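During the second half of the funding period, the structural biology subgroup turned its attention to how the target accommodates small molecules. The most pressing case was cytidine-5'-triphosphate, which had performed well in the primary screen but for which no bound structure existed. We therefore specified the complex as follows and requested a full 3D prediction, including the ligand pose.
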Amino acid sequence: MSAPHIIITAGPTIEPIDPVRFLSNHSSGRQGYALAAALAAHGARVTLVSGPVSIEPPAGAELVKVQTALEMRDAVMAALPADAYIGVAAVADWRPATRHASKMKTDKAGFASLQLVENPDILREVSGLTDRRPRLVVGFAAETASDGGALEALARAKLERKGCDLIIANDVSGDAMGGAENSVLIVSRDEVKPIARAHKDVIAAKLGDSVMALLRAPLR
Ligand code: CTP
Ligand code: CA
């Protein structure tokens, strides 16, 4: 098999309110960057579409930097075709309906009436492509679950809703978001595989092995 092309999204997106303020989340980009490095080390051609993060880009991946969810969607679509799509980014679910050209003043009622509109669901759009759908479409799910069973149930619901092939689920009740360690469940339609708590680099290496094994096996 020639080197597979894998598109990975990572980091948060930021959604501007005005020139100095934005909506975002605590994603550090570490898990996505570590996965990009692991897959590049396997010889894959990796396109890493990243929101703003403060970590070094991984060696061997092509980095495409974006700010907003809309820019991330466009960059992903422009990077197709690909053998696999792995959505690790914590895409902001909502964005301000209007981006104010000048700094909003606190003495005006602007903040109390801030209107939000839903961002596109990039993972669902990639999963739903008819002509250019990657052979393997993987989503991440950050959940605050009470236990492993609850986490698996949330992941299965997300798998169906997104139409992807795998969901990598992690419990973000503790410090997983922004922290150095993580533990995950790899959930597909017919199995669930846990990866025990470890440094994100170790988790990424194991996920990279699983993704490469799936790409080498005939799918569907
Ligand atoms: N995702 C995406 N586009 C969005 C929101 C999420 O592509 N607008 C992707 C993420 O990259 C991740 C997966 O969907 O791979 C799950 O993200 P998550 O935030 O856990 O799920 P949501 O569908 O947004 O549901 P919720 O936040 O309500 O749990
Ligand atoms: Ca979300």
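Two results from this model are relevant to the next phase. The pocket of cytidine-5'-triphosphate (ligand 1) is lined by residues 9, 69, 87, 89, 91, 93, 119, 121-123, 139-142 (CB under 6 Å). Residues 5-94+114-216 form a domain with the Rossmann fold fold (CATH 3.40.50.10300).
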